């Protein structure tokens, strides 16, 4: 029996979000490196996170976060 994730995002939604990120970027390599760096950073920052977050791979979480920032710039705030 397969264990189903508690997350609502499916593979097709992840692929759509990744395509949106790539199409919005001026350089595919650069956006790929940014996703990888965020995933790496989040992996080491989230040791104390709840078990629910640990089930999601860091790269998938980075894609979701970055696509949310792309579509909802108000969540970033002013720096």
From TrEMBL:
Give this protein's Gene Ontology molecular function annotations. DNA binding; DNA-directed RNA polymerase activity
Q: Could you describe the subunit structure of this protein? A: In cyanobacteria the RNAP catalytic core is composed of 2 alpha, 1 beta, 1 beta', 1 gamma and 1 omega subunit. When a sigma factor is associated with the core the holoenzyme is formed, which can initiate transcription.
Under InterPro entries, the record lists: DNA-dir_RNA_pol_omega, Pol_omega/Rpo6/RPB6, RPB6/omega-like_sf
What name has this protein been given in UniProt? DNA-directed RNA polymerase subunit omega
| A biological process term (GO) from this entry | DNA-templated transcription
Q: Say which domain of life the source belongs to.
A: Bacteria
Catalyzed reactions per annotation:
RNA(n) + a ribonucleoside 5'-triphosphate = RNA(n+1) + diphosphate
**Entry keywords, A to Z:** DNA-directed RNA polymerase, Nucleotidyltransferase, Transcription, Transferase
Report which gene this protein is encoded by.
rpoZ
Q: Name one Pfam family in it.
A: RNA_pol_Rpb6
Instruction: State the NCBIfam families in the record.
Output: PRK00392.2-5 (NF001574)
Q: Name one GO cellular component term.
A: DNA-directed RNA polymerase complex
| Protein species of origin | Nostoc minutum NIES-26
Which purpose does this protein serve, as stated in its record?
Promotes RNA polymerase assembly. Latches the N- and C-terminal regions of the beta' subunit thereby facilitating its interaction with the beta and alpha subunits.
Q: Family, per the entry? A: Belongs to the RNA polymerase subunit omega family.
Q: Write the Enzyme Commission number(s) for this entry.
A: 2.7.7.6
Is this entry keyworded Ubl conjugation?
no
């Amino acid at each position: 029996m397969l264990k189903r994730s508690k997350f609502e995002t499916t593979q097709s939604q992840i692929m759509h979000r990744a395509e949106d990120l790539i199409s919005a970027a001026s350089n595919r390599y650069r956006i790929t490196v940014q996703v990888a760096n965020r995933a790496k950073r989040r992996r080491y920052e989230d040791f104390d996170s709840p078990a629910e977050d640990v089930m999601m791979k860091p790269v998938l979480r980075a894609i979701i976060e970055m696509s949310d920032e792309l579509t909802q710039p108000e969540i970033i705030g002013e720096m």
